[in-house]
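Residues pack. Consider this:
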Amino acid sequence: MKLAGKVAVVPGGTAGIGKEIALAYAKEGAQVVVMSRNQERVSAMEKLLKEAGSEKSFGIAVDISDEQAVVAAFKHVKETCSKIDIMLNSAGIYPVAAFVETTKEEWDRVINVNLNGPFYCSREAAKYMIPQKNGRIIFITSGQALRGEALMAHYSASKGALVALARALAAELGPHGITVNTIAAGLTTTDTVNSSMPPQLLTNAAMGFPLQRLGRPDEYNGAAILLASDDGAYITGDTIAVDGGGSNANASHL
């Protein structure tokens, strides 16, 4: 198993892409700590992780946009697990709004969850990784960070910022043996996406990709395991696009 003996923290690990990666990490031998604002999802995910063979895995109900709550959560992880090897930032929201109709409150909500949350989590994880002289920080960003997308200015801005953040952290944390990378996810059949966009809009968008279909949440597991394991030890500051070729397609005009 590629992650035997590792401790992985996965905010957003109770749904969508993050859920599938958390389970994949558990099956590869990692002790997984999932984080979510929803206690019911946390409890359900704890059961699934144990069924996947990771008896020591557990979850924490926490709002990652709350800095002090994040600090407390990571302190609990360190006290319980003694170390943090992998930080997989998957939590995010996916609203759709015309740019001129986007309010400051909606802009702030997206930035707080999609950008500030991963910043808080990665900062706290790095504090524990630096003394270890080893660690993996991974951000789930989006193809929309690499190309234009109508009706998604706030989301695209938050995800594009994660790419820049990862590159800066790769330069700063590399001397401590810590790699930092991003996975640019394509349009994926998650509950969040399905509830945010009309079915015909999703179909039209998918047809603009070379593979002409939406992604499945489990199709990110391979890249996530690569970047978290020894196989990816010499990859840092990079973005792996797992998006059906979407990042190479023309900009979508939803």
